[in-house]
Amino acid sequence: MTLLSVENLSAGYGKAEVLHGVSLSVAERQIVAIVGPNGAGKTTLMHATMGLLPRTGLVSFMDRSAGDAGWMVRHGVVLVPETRALFTDMSVEENLQLGAFARYRQGARDLPESMAEVFEIFPRLAERRRQSAGTLSGGERQMLALGRALMGKPKLLLLDEPSLGLAPKIVADIFRVIGTMRDRGISILLVEQNARAALQMADYGYVLEMGRVALHGSCAILAEDDRVIETYLGRKRHA
Amino acid sequence: MDNAILLALLQDGLTTGAIYLLLAVGLLIAFSVTRAIFIPQGDLVSFAALTLASMIGRHIPGTIWLLDSLCAAALALSLARGRLNAVIPYGLAPAVLTIATLAATRYGAPTAVSAVLSLGIVTALGPLLYRFAYEPLGEASVLALLIVSMALHFVLIGIALYCFGAEGVSTPALTDASFDIGSVTVSGQSLFVGLVCLAMVGALRWFSVRTLYGKALRAAASDRLGARLIGVDHVLSGRTAFALASFAAAVSGLLIAPITPLSYDTGFEIGLKGFVAAVIGGLASYPLAAAGALIVGTIESFSGFWASEYRNIIVFSLLIPVLIWLSLTRGNPEDRA
């Protein structure tokens, strides 16, 4: 079943249009990757889908026309932005609690249980629970950003460059966690510069160039595509 | 100068300082959440005192009509957008408040009841002013919001003059009690001001540290994008911050009115002193702003004794060393926005 569907989406900043009619869809329990060069509009696509930017076109989630960011969060769509957007002057624990804010407003009172689950996935956060988020390392910040998103019990996670600026070992950890999230029934729309890792992990992929979808297909097929290999994967494969 | 005068001046300074503290905290909350420096907060100080004084004098306070017109406008806009549930906050609530105010004025309610109604009226004005003056600007710069604040201040001062006239008023003291502690006489009024300020600061701290809604408000101040991504509505957080700021202003107005006569334009000056305290806290730190408020109050009281005419000059000149210090130790606050 299609969870998220984006049709003919255009968006930008002021008069500068960055996305020109992008269409894509994410099915249940699917990881969909978006790859593309710097400036292709990947982050804009995430923000416009989330309702953070003015947009034209149709975004629907679970067959309902999507509203602004508040609507998306209430309906189970959570974005982890490239900048992480943590509350750096608040503690790790408070950041996590706030991840469940929308659910709390809807009457959920299971915050301690949800937090215990997050601590199970990221034991490091449990050690740092009283520390302020601003004192965390890059990897820990990404864990906190993912943990905060999980506190919202999302049906669909939008992950913008989860590996950006992280050491390779931590990138592997983060990707492992993304895999477990799918196993728990969360669908994921993933933007990655690390195209190799993204296409390995995802079920379906879109190549975004100059604000348009240049190519899309199942990741197995995309990984064999000459253009993708040349531009994003490099020639190493054939060596 | 002997010790008795010294202690009396200190007591006086700390009392006014406590009031500046409330205003500084209100300004900081409003600024950290919305990036707007809420200059008109000072005018609301006058509004509160003048509203209470009119009710005690058995005149219907003009502020209730101001509140009703703003609510009517907000109700019309909300209904035009199909938001029927706006009838409760913009229709029912002001109607109840208006009837209560008219009845209290007509039949001469006890001062405490009128004080609570004045608090209600002035507190409700804060989010409405935010709704009409600041919200439509969206993500405007700190400077643009400051200009709006100045304009709003001039509008409010005009409204205050129209509604209440130019007369200064003071309200009856809440208590005549005084206590002798050693050689010092502590007036009941000073003690009351101190206790109310402590209670309010304590309640605010409890709200922001212990409740998830309070944390959400801090989140809105900490990272705007992050706040939107967890579903904190920036409109609601802005209005809440302004409600807290105008509540602080209203309480201050009611606390000052028995000590100093207030007229339509004196609240502005008091608000500016709260602003000086907030600047001492770098428009960011609550403890520093609190210390700043007590320092401003004390300096004002001592300079009032030694050089009465230069009182304001001395207090506002405090800004210069503070700004030099801040500019040397931190970046431009707008960069952190």
Describe this structure in words.
Chain A has 239 residues and is of the alpha/beta class. Chain A has helices at residues 42-50, 69-74, 92-99, 101-105, 111-121, 123-127, 138-151, 168-183, 195-201, 219-222, 226-233; strands at residues 2-13, 16-27, 31-35, 55-61, 64-65, 77-80, 156-160, 187-191, 204-209, 212-218. Chain B has one domain. Chain B is mostly helical and 337 residues long. A two-stranded antiparallel ribbon of chain B has the order 1-2. The longest helix of chain B is centred in the first third of the chain and has 32 residues, at 3-34. Chain B has helices at 3-34, 41-56, 62-80, 87-107, 111-134, 142-164, 188-210, 212-222, 224-229, 234-256, 266-280, 286-306, 311-317, 319-329, and strands spanning 178-181, 184-187. Chain A binds chain B through residues 50, 52, 69-70, 73-74, 78-79, 81, 83, 85-90, 94, 97-99, 101-102, 104-105, 148, 152, and chain B through 212, 215-216, 218-219, 222-223, 225-226, 228-233.
